[in-house]
Fold this protein.
Amino acid sequence: MRLAVTVNSCLIVVDVQRDFMPGGALPVPQGDSVISPLNSLIELFSSKGLPIVFTRDWHPRDHISFVDRGGPWPPHCVINSEGAEFHPNLIIPPKAIIVSKGTNRDREAYSGFQGTDLHSILLEKGVKRLFVGGVATEYCVKSTVIDALEIGFETIVVEEAVKGINKRDELSAKEEMIDHGAILVKIDEIKL
Ligand code: VGL
Ligand code: ZN
C-alpha cells in the first residue's frame, strides 16, 4: 500500500523522551531505533511546511501513575527534569507544536488527546490525515491512535517509527489499532 503525504497531513511524534529511551527511568528496549526514521519524516514534513506535533509525558512529581501512589510505573518524565527532555538526537524544528500530557497529578493520560488541546489544534489547521510514530507502541502510541481514529482522522502508523516495551503487547496493540481502522505502513511505502 502506497500512501501520500497530502497537504492536510500532520506528523505526530509520541513521547520520544530520555526516560523512555535506553538508560532512562522507564526504558523501551531499543526505543532509540525510532529516532532515525522519525528524523526522516520530520525533515520531510518540515520541507513541505506541514505541521509536526511532539507529544510529551509531563508529570508532576507525585503523579498518580507512579508506584508511590499505587500506580504501575516508576517515576518518569517529571516536569522540567532531564528525563522529560526530548531525546537529544531528535530534530525539533522551530515550528514544532509541543503538546504536554499527564500534567494533572490525579489523572493518567496515555493519549495525546486526553486533557490537551490537540484536537482543536488539528482542526484549526485543517488536518485530516495523521502519520504517527514514537513510543511506547502499546501505551501512548496506541491510545493516541485509537483516539484519533474515533475522532475521525485518517491515521497511519509508521512501522519503523514505533517501538514497544514488550513484544507480545506490541503485537496485540498493532492488531487493536488495525481493528480500529489504522493503516500500518513501512516508511518506504510513504509516497513523497
Ligand atoms: C507511557 C507508560 C507511562 C508512554 C507513558 O509514553 O507510552 N508509558 N507513561
Ligand atoms: Zn507516564
User: Anything to note?
Assistant: Residues 3-191 form a domain with the Rossmann fold fold (CATH 3.40.50.850). DSSP finds four helices and eight strands in the chain. The first strand starts at residue 3 and ends at 4. The pocket of zinc ion (ligand 2) is lined by residues 57, 59, 65, 76-77, 102 (CB under 6 Å).
